Amino acid sequence: MRKRFFTIGMAGHIDHGKTTLTKALTNIDTDRLKEEKERQISIELGFAPLYEDHEIQISVVDVPGHERFIRQMIAGVAGIDLVVLVVAADEGVMPQTREHLHILELLGIQSGIVAVTKIDRVEDEFIDLVKEDILEELKGTVFEKAPFILVDSIKNKGVDELKARIVQYLKEQDTRDVRGAFRLPIDQVFTVKGQGTVIRGTVYEGSVEEGQSLMVLPKRLETRARQLQVHHQPAKSAFAGQRTAINLSGIAKEDLERGDVLVSSEHFIVTRTIDVVLKVAGDLEYMVKQRMPIKCHIGTSEVMGRIVFFDRNELKEENEEVLCQIRLEEEIVTKRGDRFILRRPSPQETIGGGWVIDPRGEKYKFGNQTVEDLEKKKEGTPKDRVIAALVEAKSLSLSELMTRTSIDEYELQNCLSEKVFLKYDADEYSLQSIKDLIIEEIYDRLRDYHNTNPMKQGLNKAELLQSMQNLYPKRLLDFVLDQGIIEAIFNKKDQFVFLADFSPHVPNNWKTRIENMLSALKADELKVNFLNDYLKSAGIPNDLVPDIKRFLVEQGEIVSLDEQYYYHGDLFRSAVERLKKGTGSEFEVGDAKEILGLSRKYMIPFLERLDVLGLTKRVENKRVWQNSRSN
Hints:
Layout: E1 4-12, H1 18-26, H2 34-39, E2 46-52, E3 56-62, H3 70-77, E4 82-88, H4 95-106, E5 112-117, H5 127-137, E6 148-150, H6 159-171, E7 183-185, E8 188-192, E9 196-202, E10 207-209, E11 213-217, E12 221-230, E13 233-235, E14 237-239, E15 243-249, E16 261-263, E17 269-280, E18 288-289, E19 293-298, E20 301-308, E21 314-315, E22 322-334, E23 339-344, E24 349-358, H7 368-378, H8 382-393, E25 396-397, H9 398-405, H10 409-416, E26 421-424, E27 428-431, H11 432-452, E28 459-460, H12 461-466, H13 474-486, E29 490-493, E30 496-499, H14 508-523, H15 531-537, H16 545-554, E31 558-560, E32 566-568, H17 569-582, E33 586-588, H18 589-596, H19 600-612, E34 616-619, E35 622-625
Parallel strand pairs: 1-3, 1-4, 4-5, 5-6
Antiparallel strand pairs: 2-3, 7-16, 8-9, 9-15, 10-14, 11-12, 11-16, 12-13, 12-15, 17-22, 17-24, 18-21, 19-20, 19-23, 20-22, 23-24, 25-27, 26-27, 28-30, 29-30, 31-32, 33-35, 34-35
Helix pairs in contact: 11-13, 14-15
InterPro entries: Beta-barrel_SelB, EF-Tu_GTPase, EFTu-like_2, Elong_fac_SelB-wing-hlx_typ-2, P-loop_NTPase, SelB_WHD4, Small_GTP-bd, T_Tr_GTP-bd_dom
GO molecular function, one term: RNA binding
Pfam families: Beta-barrel_SelB, GTP_EFTU, GTP_EFTU_D2, WHD_2nd_SelB, WHD_3rd_SelB
């Protein structure tokens, strides 16, 4: 059974004991900054290993509770699988508790446990009353039916019970998919002396291995994972759900920042416009207006932008979801289904949150038709979602399609059996329409190449595929090209690919001159001048000479004796036949001179060419005919 990895989060109001509880659970103090020690509040995210056995590994993140550090809080909970809501028994639910609850709900967190801390500060007879008050405040949230654990972190009371509940719950859950492309939103960047740049983050999906080539998006910086650590321990690989530190090669600390995303595939979408489903916070104080500035938190990114409505110009309270668009000032990396939070920059307020319908939003007209189109996109059938995923990635394996579409394997297999889909290489899928498009693009490229280079056999296959690999995966290009050859659209000779109905030929505007040149060459029979003299006399430009020579040789129109002398192809072949008929199985130079009437100036290069072509083999002073035909 594959080991599974989870990250849980501690959330709640400032000074309700999140960091102390984390230390009690893990024996690690996650307040590591000097200013955090001095002010006794968490500013940055704190991480620690919580539990590990042969089945699962659990990490814990302690997110800041002070309202000024809401940005770090959002970055922290964006990658977690379970939330422990920390509420102090002597204070109950406080403003920051409520804001954390709103954010957790908007981020789609489905599971939680309530840890009631500082129970030593409340008399035993009032504990039940405290629980009732907290439960009343949690009605209508994901914590409404969550288990309550009473904790005294200092005396270690209830800590083991809480830990056991966390482990039990996560052992019953599905983990993130470790198959498919690797994605890690960066939330910390620093340097280690002697090692260089190190980033930290929670692996959202996929896996990464030591030495693997990676890319930082949206900056498109290429790098390599020199070393990996999971909770300060060296590791050869890291998987979805794990808190990971990666030592990157070839990138300076100054080149990276929180919000960048480390990926293994360039097919992840970089965008500034996203179509979204937005749910507005229930206790919104201020009106949300058309195109008003917002701050969008998605993954670990925090980007300014504007909200665009298509069926209204403002809203304040909206129980139902609103389909709209976010236009950002900077590029982000995202995909369908990613959760986000919108906040008002000033006065600061959480506006709402939701999920990404389409990471490649476009400019639409204002009106109900656009909203209807977005609704169709949101409610897309499994077939629609698979098509959308393949339009985006061009080619995906079954496991990658499951990850991107959130469709189970059985339903996905049924969907992929339809004719609109293309299966190849055992477990790779694309669309018939993409195959047709690639065929068309290859056809156009070859046609253009033939028009520009009519005397060349075709385009080098490696060069052809390389020119298209920024648009399509190489394995798909290889498959489609082979199919095009099977379907007699293309042809291939050696390493060259060409249109099936194409034959190399002299351009019409030079055809007459080359025919004149060949006639002059033929007229001189076997006592020819330099080939360049014939080309020059025929008016062939110097820049065309190399291509014309190569073409005429490939077509058998001329045969080179050496770099200067060439025979007309017909005369060369005729001379070979005369020599074969006039000799036995072997002959000497004198025999050849007598038969062909050539001087040594032509005879020696002629015989050496026979050797090169494999027609003869020199044995001492004689040539022995081989079982080959003349060129």
